[in-house]
Amino acid sequence: MFQQEKFSERIRQLRKSQGKTQKDVADAVGVSVNQISEMEKGTKITTLPKLCLLCDYFNVPADYLLGRTDTPR
């Protein structure tokens, strides 16, 4: 089951642990900085194509971002 709180937390943690800014992530995924901020706050989610881009960018499986597993590899 999708867990929005974990999704938000993991996006933020991955970004920070890789030394990336919200702008870096936004540019890589093709969204605004505001959209990344909203994802990290848990006020918005994303589309399936953008989820795939986020997974590729952070090199993690979708199940990890979605909170379906705690294994990032």
Notes on the structure:
The chain starts with a helix and ends in an 8-residue tail after the last helix. It is globular and about 25 Å long. 63% of the residues lie in helices and 0% in strands. Helix 2 (22-29) packs across helix 3. It has helices spanning 4-17, 22-29, 33-41, 48-58, 62-65. The chain has 5 helices and no strands. The protein is mainly α and 73 residues long. The model has no long low-confidence stretch (mean pLDDT 95).
Descriptive keywords:
73 residues, mainly alpha, 63% helix, globular
Q: What is shown here, in short?
A:
This protein has 73 residues and is mostly helical. Helix content is 63%, strand content 0%.
Q: Topology of this structure?
A:
Elements: H1 4-17, H2 22-29, H3 33-41, H4 48-58, H5 62-65
Shape: globular
Taking the sheet with the most strands, its summary is: none
What is the gyration radius calculated from CA atoms?
11 Å
Number of strands: 0
Structural class: mainly alpha
Helix content: 55-70%
**Terminal residue distance:** 19 Å
Could you tell me the strand content as a percent range?
under 5%
What's the order of the H and E elements? Answer: HHHHH
The average pLDDT score comes to 95
Count helical runs.
5
Unreliable runs, pLDDT <50, ≥5 residues? none
